[in-house]
């Protein structure tokens, strides 16, 4: 799930860049995970990483531009319109972080409630998805078949960041930078039966003024698991027209292409992983039944 949603890998027929598959456990100089009570408790044996200089392209960083003649009242009106199409995001309490197999890969169950997840799905469907494909591994691109929406919404990004996600990054530093928010370029993915996203690497993005993305954020809006539900929401699930999701797991691979972690979509669950030079090779497996919806952004460091 790259920032551009697919990655070119040059002439390599496998579609996998050897440079991106380089993995080492003796690289502590460039990535500084600050020693803190949180990381001493949660990540006692994490492999150290070395973020080498990369040549990722500067893209997906379109700022929201406001004409000079726009008044403050008009700006507030536009912001109100943006907010109105999204579900209300309440502050998160008692969130838990689950580290996966001593990697810089972690998930947060129930980050979105069931109502919030369904609200985003509804809003995205009203906006309309566009199918995304690729030329495939023989043309140096990861295989891709899914549907996508991309919007720029700084207000939504800030709301989600400040609802509780920011708490998990208070003690993380990368190259002396700290996490400051989410990329306002928000993407929604939809995978119907038979669709998938082949093995690929997510790129890091330069956003200007010393800002750069280092983590991918995925929030599953549908899945075999569930978020926090009210009695009304649970009773409504008896509707036979709502088909449960089967398949669509996000799978991460190690240096020898062995499976490091396999994450099954669960409604409302957030999944975060490093991207850029130290991004693990990963894929979104084929959806066997139902529809998989995903909210996607990136964590910015500055």
Describe it for me?
The chain is of the alpha+beta class and 302 residues long. It has a domain at 109-134 and 153-226 and 242-301: Sandwich (Jelly Rolls), CATH 2.60.120. Helices cover 18% and strands 28% of the residues. The protein has a 15-stranded antiparallel beta sheet that branches. The protein is globular.
Q: Compute the gyration radius: what is it?
A: 19 Å
- Percent strand equals 25-35%
CATH topology of the domain at 109-134 and 153-226 and 242-301: Jelly Rolls
What form results from the Cα inertia axes? globular
Q: Structural class, from helix and strand content?
A: alpha+beta
Report the count of strand segments: 17
Ranges with pLDDT <50 over ≥5 residues? 1-68, 80-84, 226-241
Mean pLDDT: 77
Secondary structure tally, helices: 6
Cα end-to-end separation: 22 Å
Keywords: Dioxygenase, Iron, Metal-binding, Oxidoreductase, Signal-anchor, Transmembrane
InterPro entries: P4HA-like, Pro_4_hyd_alph
Membrane topology: Single-pass type II membrane protein
Protein name: Prolyl 4-hydroxylase alpha subunit domain-containing protein
Tags for this entry?
Pro_4_hyd_alph; two-stranded antiparallel sheet; signal-anchor; procollagen-proline 4-dioxygenase activity; globular; Jelly Rolls; 302 residues; alpha+beta; disordered N terminus; single chain; 15-stranded antiparallel sheet
């Amino acid at each position: 799930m790259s920032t551009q949603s697919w990655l070119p890998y040059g002439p390599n027929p496998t579609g996998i860049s050897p440079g991106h598959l380089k993995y080492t456990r003796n690289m502590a100089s460039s990535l500084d995970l600050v020693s803190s009570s949180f990381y001493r408790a949660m990540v006692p044996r994490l492999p150290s990483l070395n973020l080498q200089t990369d040549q990722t392209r500067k893209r997906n960083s379109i700022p929201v531009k406001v004409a000079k003649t726009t008044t403050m009242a008009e700006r507030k009106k536009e912001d109100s319109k943006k907010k109105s199409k999204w579900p209300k995001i309440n502050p998160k309490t008692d969130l838990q972080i689950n580290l996966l197999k001593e990697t810089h890969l972690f998930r947060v169950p129930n980050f979105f409630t069931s109502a919030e997840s369904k609200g985003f799905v509804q809003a995205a469907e009203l906006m309309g998805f566009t199918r995304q494909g690729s030329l495939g591994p023989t043309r140096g691109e990861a295989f891709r078949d899914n549907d996508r929406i991309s919007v720029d919404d700084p207000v939504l990004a800030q709301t989600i960041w400040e609802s509780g996600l920011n708490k998990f990054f208070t003690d993380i530093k990368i190259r002396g930078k700290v996490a400051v928010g989410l990329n306002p370029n928000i993407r929604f993915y939809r995978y119907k039966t038979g669709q998938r996203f082949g093995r690929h690497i997510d790129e890091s993005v330069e956003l200007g003024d010393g800002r750069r993305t280092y983590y991918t954020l995925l929030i599953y809006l549908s899945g075999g698991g569930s978020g926090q539900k009210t009695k009304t929401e649970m009773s409504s699930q008896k509707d036979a027209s709502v088909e449960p999701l089967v398949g669509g797991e996000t799978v991460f691979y190690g240096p020898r292409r062995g499976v490091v972690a396999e994450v099954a979509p669960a409604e409302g669950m957030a999944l975060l992983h490093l991207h850029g030079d130290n991004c693990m090779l990963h894929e979104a497996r084929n959806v066997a039944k139902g529809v998989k919806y995903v909210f996607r952004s990136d964590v910015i460091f500055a």
